[in-house]
Each structure stands twice: as structure tokens, then as C-alpha cells.
Amino acid sequence: SAGDGTSSKGDTKDGGAKAEKTLKLAFNQQPNHPQFIALDAMGERLKQRTAGKYDIEVFPNETLGTQKDTVELVKAGTIEMSMVAAPLMESFNKDFIVFNLPFTFDSQEHQRKTTNDPAIVSELYSSLDSQGLRVLGSFHGGVRNMYTSKKPINTPADMKGLKIRVIESDTNVEMMKLMGGSPAPMGMGEVYTAIQSGVLDGAENNELTYANVKHAEVAKFYSYTRHLMLPDYLLINPKVLDAMPEDVRKIFLEEIAVAVEEEGQLWGQEIPRSKALAEKAGAQFNEVDAASFTSLIAPLTQQKLDNDKIRGIHAKVRAAAK
Amino acid sequence: MEAAALAGLVLVGGIAVLLLIGAPISVAVGLSSTLAMFVVVGFDNGALTAAQQMFRGINSFALLAIPFFVLAGVIMSQGGIALQLINAGKVLVGRVPGSLPQTTVAANTLFGAVSGSSIAAAAAIGTTMGPLEAKEGYNKNFSAAVNVASAPGGMLVPPSNLMIVYSLVSGSSVAALFVAGYLPGLLWAVACSAVVYLYVRRHPELRETQRVGLREGARVLLIALPSLLLIAVVIVGILAGFFTATESAAIAVFYSAIQSAFYRTIKLRDVPGILLESTKITAVVMFLIAVSTIMGFVLSFSKIPELVSDAMFGFSENPVVLLLLIAVILLIVGCFMDATPAVLIFTPIFLPIVTSFGIDPIHFGIMMIFNLSIGTITPPVGTVLFVGAKVSGQPIEGIVRQLMPFLAALTICLIIVIFTPGLSLWLPELFGLMP
Amino acid sequence: MTAVKNVLDRVLGWCCIVLFAALVLDVGWQVFARQVLDAPSGWSEELAKYLFIWLGLLGGAWVFGERGHVAADLAVQRMPEKVQRVTAVLVQFATLMFAALTLIWGGYRVVHLTWDQTLTGLPVNVGWMYLALPISGVITAFYAIYHTISISKGDEVPIDLEAETALS
Ligand code: NA
Ligand code: NA
Hints:
- The structure holds three protein chains of three kinds.
- By secondary structure, chain A is α/β, with parallel strands linked by helices.
- Chain A has eleven helices and nine strands.
- Chain A is globular, with a radius of gyration of 20 Å.
- Helix content of chain B is 80%, strand content 0%.
- Chain B has 22 helices and no strands.
- In chain C, 74% of the residues lie in helices and 0% in strands.
- Chain C is elongated, with a radius of gyration of 19 Å.
- Chains in contact: A-B, A-C, B-C.
- At the B-C interface, helix 1, helix 2, helix 3, helix 4 and helix 14 of B face helix 1, helix 2, helix 3 and helix 4 of C.
- One sodium ion (NA) binds next to helix 6 of chain B.
């Protein structure tokens, strides 16, 4: 029925019969994104394994709103799930900062294992249950690097005076200052024109987004500072999870674990393709003096770990690094 | 009945009934969309989601350009800028036979290029030019028709609030849209000018010219220079990266305010009234945007655009036929509805269809704005037509008769704009604004 | 009731004037800070957005008082005066419904939902921003009731074309 916030309709991509419950999932990027592909495929498997009872419908391209809007929709129960960038969760519980600090993860592998390890994350991920939010799984969201329009970045000195777009979060603003740049928090939609016209000197993001939003056309120097590796969280309203029959919930959680693995693999395959795409648009990739950036940003991580709970989580994550 | 179909019925039926009994468009769209929201997400969350979407619709830095361009337009229509632009227009086209109506066309286009509002243009230019033309023996209905026909060019020549609204619903770049509007805007002016030319040829007694001497011309242009410079400030500022569209709008406000203070056309005690007048226009636009966002959510949530596009593709798969069909629908819509709500309501429905056969969103936006700008001068409901009639003191029927050749010419131009993508896309590509 | 409306009109009008003036100064400051001082201001953009939202929602409510929202009332204009009074009252009822359901009830629910979320760059929570919705709704509802009474009593014309705002 419509009244419980879960619509009983929903057409499926395979054109088969309609599922009894279609879980609506909001997503802000294009359907060619690894996360979309993995989640869409997960919906197919869920439908098969529940004999057509459950399905997932992914709404790409921000059609249901920005990530912040869709979190509210999940809390209210209008939609069931949403995929959001990790820094957004800091406005609900400050402890979520722990995975958003520089040099927390050594590799994609390390990130995937630790941020999906119940022994490390279960308390954090269910800390917002009373508000109608739970993190179901942590997906790889790429490694963020600097890209600029005028010259490549090699050392922190090259960053001096450059206006760089950052995510709208205090941590990112502080981090950019430490790296030597001048941070400009701005919505993603305005960045292309801002760089093109010179309002900004650059931005920072992973290779996929860099190629997908065609920023390579206006900022061709992509420098591997590797300053951040942020996860993306798949959120669900815990009431939806509770309402699932035991067997369905088991299948559902198993398939999420599969989707997390698959997304990681897709991401790896996507990087060379994105780099080639960006190079065709004129991009040049270069390595940087990593040690000097590390020493600049390292204090931020220690300063932001300001309570025992997150210090504990951080220690476990670092211990798992080889 | 399926939830999606029921939601569609509530939405379309609700809007139709409420518009028919004369409800404000924002109430018609807002209430119907909220009721449709109850159908798709349930009673408990429907109101919450509707309220949240309203907020989402206006929570945008890009939209901030609107109150500023509105304010700049209000300041300019009270200041002495219109007169300067008319004088500049005379210098430009004074040697052409029928120079007064040609000056109206030029001045309206220039005013549109500084102010963003075609209503302000029609009011300011029409008030000054009407009596001058009457003195030279022009038919008053014809003079009013020239003013009405040439004023909407202001929505195609940047800055343009309608373009900002379109960029919001379509997700395309404001800077690219702004630049894309120049050539179609110029085409609009040329079409009006051509109709005036043909009219004057049939009326030899009206072949007056207003030759302005070299020295006088230079003096007039020098006086008008600050106003003309604003055109450059807005667009060069955006292109060269000194500021964003929103900031350029703020610059336009300060620029025109300082200018008006300098010429003493606006006094300090006029300021609250100017701000209140601007609030009115801004708030009406924002309410429309807010409620259209609720509608947009209901549409995507229940996949109604897909249903509409299936139906349209069932009608024909030929892009030419479909584009013409959309143009005709928008011309009919324009007869009854102002351009801003029409852009908000129809973009989410038509844009996915046209992009599916390769039409660029920037090109479609210019096509839609051109299309709906024609609507602002067509009876029975035409905002620019009404303002033009009011300042001329002539009856609408009389003006409409003189307007017919202009409408014919503009419709031909519309077809040219639709089928010549380069007209819209060449400049933004040249400036590297097309991602 | 007319006295209340007159006071409300004035207070609301001045609120809008002040909000608009603050908005102009804030964005002016932003351009100045970035271009002249070369020190982009972190809070001015957020503040501008929220001033703008309050301006739009309070201003929108005020325009309901003026009966200034754009309508497409062509069909009704051709109707006899008696029919116009009935439709005009229905229109005010629809406005009241919209204010009550969407702005007041929906707005209240969103405020409640977001009361403990923090905002980047500003010392207030998200709920404060959404609060503009129910407040705008209460004012709009008052105006709708006022107009319903005035139209039924014959104190107001059923269609007020002069009041409608032109946008193009
Ligand atoms: Na304009
Ligand atoms: Na019309």
C-alpha cells in the first residue's frame, strides 16, 4: 500500500512482474557510476532470491534531491535508502569524522575491510537508529587528488594563493589551508564554469568524477596528492530493515556485502578508463612530493580525534593496516 | 488504479480545475502536487516531503541572481537609463527611414540587455517613444505594437531571469545560456526591425529620419556610455571570471544605484518602496519555483515523464515532428500562461524527450524561452502585451491587429531557432562554456 | 480583522525590506571580500541563501495578502459576478488548504525532523531555516481567511487584475 511509505508498484528493468516491495534508493550521480551499477545489480539478485517479492529501484542524477535532502527523506520514511558522501554524516553525529580524516586508509582494500568490519563500526553505524538512519555498508568513494588549471602541483609551495574548491565541511576547509591553498566551499554544479572563468584555480576529487564532469577540459593538471580517501555510505531507515522477514533480511545483508565487493572491483577497472577519457580532454597526471604534504596535514588528524570513542576506532583501523 | 496513474490524475486534474476557477498558479501547482504526493508517498509523509521539496527548490545560490536582476530592473525603470538608451538607439538607427519605431526596437533590445525584464523595457521605452511617434503621425496602435513586439527580446538577451529559472530546472549552466541567447535575441530584434521596414515602405509619409550629427552623436553616446558599459560589465565579468552570475547581478544593482544617485533620479526615501516592489516580483517567482519542485519530485517519483515520452514517441518517432509538436504546445500554453511558470512546469516533462534524440539542453532552453517569449505578447493573456497597452492607452484589440505581422515573423524565427542549433550553440562553444 | 491585517501588512513589508537590504549588503560584501580583499568569506554565501529563503517565503505570504500571485483567470473573467464570488471564495479556500497542509503541517514536520542537524558555516541548526515554512503558512492562512470574509461580504472584488504581479 502507499500508506506505509513503500510503494507497491515500481517497474523493473528486466521487464518482469512487479515486485511486492520496491525499495527506493536515491543516488546523486550518473547511471554509469560503479555504485549505480553495483546497486542496480544487487536489486536484480535480491529480486531473484526473494522470488520477486523485493526489488531495489535506484533513482540516479539527484532526481529526488541533493544528498542532504534524501537523508531527510530516508529519516521520514518517504524513501527507503540513499547513498551519501561520508562528510555529510558529521552533521548528524560528529563521531563520523573518524573516517573523513587524511591518511586514515592505506588502500582501497584497507578501507573496504575496516569500514565494513562490524567489530570496528557497528556501534558508530547504528548510533543514529533513533533518528531513523543506519549505515548499511561503506562503499569506496575514490581517492581525492588536486587538479588545477595553471600549473601542476609538486610541493606545498605550488599551492600558495590558489583558490581551490572543497566540500562544504569545516575539516576540508582546514585541510586545504594546511596544504597551502585558499579553500572555497562551493556546490559541485558551479565548479566547471568557476574554473573555466578563473574564479577558481582548481578543485580536488577522484579520477572518475574528474573525468565524468569534464573538469579536465578546464583544469588539466591532475596531481596525485592522495590527501583523502572518503567512503560513501549506503543509508537505510532501520524501520525498513526491521519490517523485513528474517529470511529476506539475511539475503538483503548478504547481497549488500557482495555489492560492496563488486563496487570496489568496478572502481578499479574504471580508473584507467577515466584517466584515458581525461587525457583525451587534455589532462596530464603527475606524482607529488608526498612526504611534505603528509607532514603538513598529519596534525589535523590528531587534532580532530578529540574523544576516546573515535580514537579507539581510528586505532583499530590503523592496526589493520599492513 | 496504480499509484502513479492516480498521482498523475490528481496532479493534472487538480491543476486544471484550480486554474480554471482562477486560483494563483502557485496555489494550483502547490496544492495539487501536495495531494498527488499523498498518493505516492502516503498521507503521513506527503506533507513533510512537499514542504521539504519547496525548500529545496529555493535553497540555491544560483537563484540569488533573480532578486538582484529584479532589483536592478526596478531601479533602472525609475532612473534615467531608459532615456539614455533611447538616445543611443537614435544614434544607431536614426538614418534609417522610419527611424522612431526602429529606435524603439533598438532601445528595447538595449534595455533588455541591461535589465533582464521585458516588462520594465515595454513600460520605460513605450512611455517615452509613444508620444514622439504620435507627433510624427504614426498610428498609435502600430507604435504600441512595435514596442510590445520588441520588448520580449530582453528575456533572450542576457541578463535574463527566465534563463536562470531554466538553468535551475534543467541543470544547465547559466553562463552558457546567457551567451547562447545573444544571437537568437538579435534575430528577434532583426525580425521586428524588418517588419517595421516593410510597414514604412507601404507608408511613404512615415519615412522620417532622425539624423544625429557626428558631434551630437558622440555626446549622446558618451552620456549613455555608463549604461552601455553595464552590458559589458555583466557579460565580460562572467566570461573573464571576475564574478559568478549572481555576483554580476549584485554588481548591476550597485552600478545602477550609484548611477541613479548620481543623476538624482532616485532619492533615499524611494529605497524602501523599490525594495518592496522587488520583493513582490522576487517572491512570486520563488513561490512558483518552490511549488514546481514539489511537482518535479512527484513526476520523477512516479515516472510520469517516461509515460508522457512513451505517449509522444507513440505518436511519432520523427524528431522534427516532435519538436514542432512541442513548439505548438508551448505556443498554445503561452497564450494563457506567463513564461516563468510555463518553463517550470514543462521543462521537466519535455527536456528528457528532446535530449533522448540528441538535442542539447542549452539549445532546448533557448528554443523554449523564444517560444514562451512569443507567448508574453499573444492574447488573451500576455503580460508584455498588457503593459504595452497600458502605457500606450490604446485598446488591446487594436494593438493585436498591428501585432499580427510581428507574430508571423517571430514564429518564422522560432522555426529557424529550433532547426538551427548553431544559432544558440556557436557562441557558448566559442567561449568554451559547453561541457 | 482589517486592523490586524493592516498592522501585519506593514510589519511584514518592513521585514521584507530589511531582509532584502541585508541580502544586498551581504552579497556585496562577498564580491568585495573575494575580489578586493582576496579573502573569500566562508559565511556570506550561506547567509545569503538563508536570507533569500526567508525573504522569498515571508515575501510570498505578504503577496498573498496583496492578492498579487500570478493567476490565469481568463475563464472566470467572462463569468457573471455571482459566479466570480463563488470561485473567488473557492480560490481562497484552496489557498488555505495549501497553507495548512504544505506550509504549516509539512513545514512543522520538517522542522521537527531536522531540529538537531547542524549547518556548515553558521551557528544555527537546519531546523531554524525550515521554520520559515510554517511561519509563512500561518500568515498565508490568515490572509486567506481575511479575503474569504471580505469577498463574501462584498468588501473586496472577486477578481483583482490590478493586484496581480507581472513577471516577464
Ligand atoms: Na535581458
Ligand atoms: Na500569451
